[in-house]
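Async update (no meeting this week)

Hi team, since we skipped the sync, here's where things stand on the single-chain job. The sequence we agreed to prioritize is pasted below, unchanged from the tracker. I ran it this morning and attached the output directly underneath so nobody has to dig for it. Comments welcome in thread, and please keep replies under the output.
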Amino acid sequence: MTEPLHYRIEDGLARITLNRPQRLNAFNAELAEAWAEATVAATTDSSVGAILIEGEGRAFCAGGDVIDMATRFGGGSDIERLAKVINTGISALTSSSVPVVAAAHGTTAGGGLGILLSSDYAVIGTDSKIGSRYANVGLTPDLSVSAQLARAVGERRALQLLLTDRLLTANEALEWGIAAEAVGEGDAQEIAAAVRTRAEELARFWLSGAFGAYGQAKRLIRSRQDRTFQGQLDEEARTIAAAFGGSEAQALIAAFAGRSATR
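Output:
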């Protein structure tokens, strides 16, 4: 049986690959369990400094596998349990101090949008399409879509996407702020390869520099709604003080001072 997800660590980079290409990497129970296990492992492993999420085949993620749900699940309680398993991974990613990049080629829809929004930096293809489309099958947003979409694009735009069957083009996804970059040219396979290459370049960039500082910056932004404005100021002060005393900052500050002295 083909593994529904591949997980490996290479020189500090944890790579999570959704591997149900025949179903556009839509989540079934097996993928949900593997996803939760991999994301928790990646965010709790001290050797991991960056995480890359990608999908095999011609799409990033089509959300939940509704055909599998209809044939295997007995009712709504099964769907709720499945969503909570996947949410474990989403919470692990968004609450961690590890920066996450998504290589989201092809189509991203339904709960796949929540997976995309769980990354801190999203690279898509120039031919990518991104949308909600829950209501097309009579379902409602899950996998953090209602929690993260409005925060990312604003309430009015979130409603536009959730209340229609619209698929955003790559340029629209950039304009709305859902994705940071759209890359690639040629056929679908060439564009997918370009997306993966660019996403890995970003992850390696984090790893080659102050990845601890990048991770703490991510944590400050992601967790800011849990604090008052004054509480956020206090957390910023505490975090920069802790960073200043760390070996990462001390080495980089010393190098900066050395360069300045020679000018």
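Quick observations from my side:
The chain has eleven helices and nine strands.
The chain has two domains: 5-208, 211-261.
Reply here if anything looks off.
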